Amino acid sequence: MALLKLTSPHAHAAQNTGAVMRLVLLATIPGLLALTVFFGWGSLINILIAGTVAVCCEALVMRLRKRPVMFYLRDCSALVTAVLLGLALPPLAPWWVVVIGTGFAILIAKHLYGGLGYNPFNPAMVGYVVLLISFPVQMTAWATPLPLYPEGLSAPSFWESLQIVFPVLSPGNIDAVTAATPLDTFKHNSSLLVTQLYEKTPLFSQAHWAGLGWEWVNLGFLAGGILLLARRVFTWHAPVAMLSSLALCAALFYDSGSSASHGSPLMHLLSGGTMLGAFFIVTDPVTSATSNRGRLIYGALIGVLIFIIRSWGSYPDAVAFAVLLMNFAAPLIDNYTLPRTYGHTKSRRATKKKE
Amino acid sequence: MASTSSREVAHNGLWKNNPALVQLLGLCPLLAVTGSVVNALGLGLATMLVLAGSNTVVSMIRNHVSEAVKIPAFVMIIATFTTCTELLMQAFTYELYTILGIFIPLIVTNCMILGRAEAFACKNPVAISLFDGLMMGGGFGLVLLSIGAIREILGSGTLFADMHLLFGPIAENWTLHLFGEGYGFLIAVLPPGAFLVAGADLDSPARAAPR
């Protein structure tokens, strides 16, 4: 009798980078749909521009580095960076903002450090932060949710959205209609109790849980994230740690809904880039911690940093800054959270102790 | 050592052994004040002045100080020249002096200056030491100037803005607007821009050399 003798892992097929990246792209669709439904065509246009620029930059760099261009384009990693950046940028941002951000992400944050797998920082987040500190005006203007458009103004069609993004196309300039996000609203609230704020602000009063539009965008990314989790693209540790530490911080500083409150845990979980960050950024295998224990620490600290920067910082959202700061710390975390090797009672030290 | 030709000294200071690009000295002011041409030029000139002065005096006293007190003596000389420069700038270019702030007194701690006193001026005659100071300071100033120019162009889209701080009223309208009003790419004038531009420039003499 011939028994099949195989050791684990019992994988049926090699998980190649391209397949994983395409799955990630697929998983962003629910979030992108929600963004398009509630904030118009802006995000889709961002992604189209960013995708084109990213592929061109990637091809250019591979050409310069004398590597096979098509081979590296087919792994779709540049496209994932572009899509994540496009989703994070304000809809209807001017085209050059998207172009500069994507170029920076691919050329400097990714390839200057050696390309895919070598970059210490998440390229999409580097692109975002460069734009945020360089063009604060454009980057802090988020499109108004379509249901809240002022009387007499209709939501821009796809063509009108294109004209806003590329002002060259329009004979008379069309302006994007922008409004405060839930996080902005809380940041600028100094006199209203949370319940009053929720009643007075249409952004909250017309929403189910957290903020009109934003809740669905975040639930969309949550759905995509769960899909990726179910397909075992990443483990649950980092995102769950991040979300629970963020919720915990928010609960601690909720201040029972006073005017000094920084917002409820639910508001923090379903606003801004929380879910996009938790499932698509924090889980980046290259820039995050490696072991499961390390990922718990890494994710939890990102959650804490997000809350701190959101509450006491002066920027519209904090996911990008928190992620970049923890990218810095990931090697240190790895150093102290080396897993125990099977058969050993204690984990080996990552670095040799100096005598 | 005495046979060092002035041609060689100039080549070393300005290019081959450039204090900022090759020796990587004085990087703190290099990163901190190069947000615009006028700041860079102001600090470059101040540093050059101090370096030329300290090199000259160190060379003059080189046969009279003992090995034991050499370094303190050099530091005293450098501090004297830095104070002179600081007072001069306070007198003639007060606004620029306030903009550059702490980085003028900090010229004392610029390793490049003590380095030249130690490595060149205390072993060479006065004239060539003065020339070395001018060339090394000039090389440093030129790097400052070029980084300042790149960052000013990228960051605010202007060149030679506010030059009147250094050259007086004639320079009022030297400002060139390269990309029209309202342009701004803030990261280039913020600290990260300093690292990016300086990083792109570092070691260029070695990279430009034929291999």
What does this structure look like?
The complex is a heterodimer of chains A (355) and B (211). Chain A has two domains: 16-179, no CATH class; 181-338, no CATH class. A two-stranded antiparallel sheet of chain A has the order 1-2. Chain A is mostly helical and 355 residues long. Chain A is built from 18 helices and two strands. In chain A, 46% of the residues are buried. Chain A has helices at 17-27, 29-39, 42-64, 69-73, 77-88, 95-111, 123-134, 136-139, 158-165, 182-188, 194-200, 202-205, 214-230, 237-252, 265-269, 274-281, 292-312, 319-336, and strands at residues 142-143, 178-179. The model of chain A has no long low-confidence stretch (mean pLDDT 89). Chain B has 211 residues and is mostly helical. Chain B has a domain at 7-148. Chain B contains ten helices and two strands. Chain B has helices at 6-16, 27-32, 37-60, 70-92, 94-100, 111-119, 126-156, 164-167, 191-201, 204-208, and strands at residues 158-159, 176-177. Chain B has a two-stranded antiparallel sheet with strand order 1-2. The two termini of chain B are 28 Å apart. The mean pLDDT of chain B is 88. Chains A and B meet through α7 of A and loops of B.
